[in-house]
Amino acid sequence: MVSQSDKSRTTVDIYGRSYHIRGNEDAEHIRHVANLVDEKMRGIHEVNKSLDTTNLAVLTAVNTMNDYIKLQEEYEVLQKLLDEKEE
Of the chain's two ends, which shows fewer C-beta atoms within 10 Å, N or C? Predict the structure, then answer.
């Protein structure tokens, strides 16, 4: 189990706001993830400039989860193909 003192603490900027994030990953990884979130939010904002920050954040989360599920499904298909090939 990771203790609170072992967690990385990092300040990141997402969509013009600073956030203090504490997690198990190293600071570079946390900054990378935050940068991806920031890019996704800015990309969605370019398409729909009328969204307020809350709606923009929710839409970003929904889009990100959709991307994750698609990748997970692709991974499962590839894993099944590998398993079949090994048999």
Answer: N
